[in-house]
Amino acid sequence: MHIEIDEKSGFCFGVVKAITKAEQSLSELGRVCSLGDIVHNRVEVQRLEKLGLETISHDELRGMSGRTVLIRAHGEPPSTYDFARRHGIRLIDATCPVVARLQKLVKSAHEEMKACGGQVVILGKRGHAEVVGLTGQVDGDAIVVETPDDLQSVDFSRPICLLSQTTQSLALFEQIRRSMLERAANPSRVVVHDTICRQVSNRNPHLQQFARRFDAIVFVCGRKSSNGKVLYQTCLQSNPRSYTVEDESELRPEWFEGCRSVGICGATSTPKWLMQRVADRIGQAAGGADGNDF
Question: Most buried of the four, 94, 143, 177, 179, by CB within 10 Å?
């Protein structure tokens, strides 16, 4: 059986930065807290926990005086930094550079819109850590839309500045943009900033091609990964024999009946070492006495 791991799958550079900072801090300090899951992958979080990483909630931040807390790639609103300064909490900022630039852009866009009586609209998932960080830059004075139906909350008689969560769909962003321009009283007063990270969005067309090359696809990702859910659907649409697992223990022999080739891929929150472990287990089972030794 031919088994191939997608070379373009795995951690995006923002996640690599956060994981690297966590590992460096743990080697120096022994114990570090992460404000929320450092990455939406249970197996990777467990690996880091063994090194001394502790995941805490925002409510638990109140008891962290004198401790070291890592800000994950999704970023945080200014209120989190202010709270840490006031309570003697040392922060390690691992905000993704793309997200950090977007946070600054949201602030400047808000100032421009405020000056002309306009509004800031952000395409994103409500409650998502990155979106919470973005709206927090302007004390919540931004409209978050998830679908075209949400545009009913936008006042199209006023100027508009449209931005997006970095991991949103390019197709959805374009749909929102077109709808805004069609409905705006004055389309020239609609400012659009395409802030979607191409390292993430470009994986969709690549995975479409990758998934078609194999008899079966195993997509490795954490249950909490929003990016993983979207990319897995991309695989499933391109290859109906696509399956998703968190780790190698979830593999099922019937998935590979009659297969001569299997592709392994994953989300931006999936470590390469975990995809390799899944590939190794499939290879071992394919080489077993009955070919189904899972």
Answer: 94
Residue 226 in marked binding region: yes
The reply to whether 130 belongs to the active site is: yes
**Collapsing DSSP states into helix, strand and coil, what is residue 20?**
helix
> Which residue in 44, 76, 130, 248 is the catalytic one?
130
Nearest CA to 21 out of 84, 104, 90, 106 is that of 90
Strand-pair partners of 160: 119, 190
- Count other C-beta atoms under 10 Å from residue 287's C-beta: 10
Element housing 142 (H / E): none
Q: In what helix (H) or strand (E) does residue 290 lie, and over which residues does it extend?
A: none
Q: Which positions ≥6 away from 27 have C-beta within 8 Å? A: none
pTM over 0.70: yes
Digit-coded pLDDT (tens) for 111-170: 999 999 999 999 999 999 999 999 999 999 999 999 999 999 999 999 999 999 998 989
Tell me the C-alpha distance between 73 and 61, whole Å. Answer: 18
The two tokens of residue 172 are: 């959805």
pLDDT per position as a tens digit, 103-126? 999 999 999 999 999 999 999 999
Calculate the CA 123 to chain-centre distance.
14
Q: In degrees, to the nearest 5, what angle opens at C-alpha 198 toward C-alphas 192 and 203?
A: 135
| 8 Å CB contact between 243 and 276 | no
Strands of the chain (E only): list them. Answer: 2-5, 32-35, 53-56, 68-71, 90-93, 119-123, 143-145, 160-164, 190-192, 216-220, 242-245, 261-266
Q: Is 242 annotated as a binding residue?
A: no
User: Does the annotation flag 2 for ligand binding?
Assistant: no
